């Protein structure tokens, strides 16, 4: 089979690999679609970050570079290993792409397995990835999804789960006003979750395409261009002078962080979703004087089942966020290059590793 393998900064190659072995307790999946994530771009430009460097095996997967990339993916079950009796060949599935030690409680009541020591990610830390034609995944991390959900949409359930967990961390509820800084894929999908909960959403974004996408999909009530509008003043106007109840930092850009801090009401909640590759200049005086509650959020924890329910019920529509589809051979030139140098022209680009989806 073919797979996109990451060898190090700026070095991705399409390799021919043996198909994975479907061992006891695992599920063999024909990958249908895999999204390109911002984390993949960070690895390409600045890494290795999450990917294990040569000579430093990942503590749980035991693997080092090269690794197969891709952690936002959907597919169809082609085989089940011994002991797997609740998934059938032919079922549509998505993957919660964790690599977690066997002694960690990952049960339905856990709220912290995503923070466990030695954690890794399929598609970054080893054990295959969604940018390969096939993959074998432990049953715990495989989630069936209704055939009524197209497999291209299903590939967005992983990033949607990131937004869902961030909204959970914020404590936002119906009637609140949220300011989302950055309308890339995570900002838009976080907005989608907020709208599904009855929150009024204001998006701040430079890209006209992404602002339009936020409005035409209905995930934002207001989409502001910070070059043309004083975002803080507009949020205050929209809230009767009070300010936003919650804010989500989805850009890793300093002026966006500053704007969110200023636009929040006293005792408001700031949630940082973006992975910052550098230190931020944080206004501690404003944090103290407004009693801002600042929270980090990473990935998801037992988020996939409720997110799948939101998608299957039709409360969140994912098709509008897919702005490109490519084959594996176009991964760098058509996918990475677009998202790195012309990211204002795209939201989510999906890859068909086998090419059958094109």
Automatic annotation (TrEMBL):
GO terms for molecular function: oxidoreductase activity; zinc ion binding. PROSITE patterns: ADH_ZINC. Residues 8-328 form the Enoyl reductase (ER) domain. Its cofactor is Zn(2+). InterPro entries: ADH-like_C, ADH-like_N, ADH_Zn_CS, ER, GroES-like_sf, NAD(P)-bd_dom_sf. Pfam families: ADH_N (PF08240), ADH_zinc_N (PF00107). It comes from the Bacteria. Keywords: Metal-binding, Oxidoreductase, Zinc. Gene3D superfamilies: Medium-chain alcohol dehydrogenases, catalytic domain (3.90.180.10), NAD(P)-binding Rossmann-like Domain (3.40.50.720). The keyword Zinc applies. Belongs to the zinc-containing alcohol dehydrogenase family. This is 2,3-butanediol dehydrogenase.
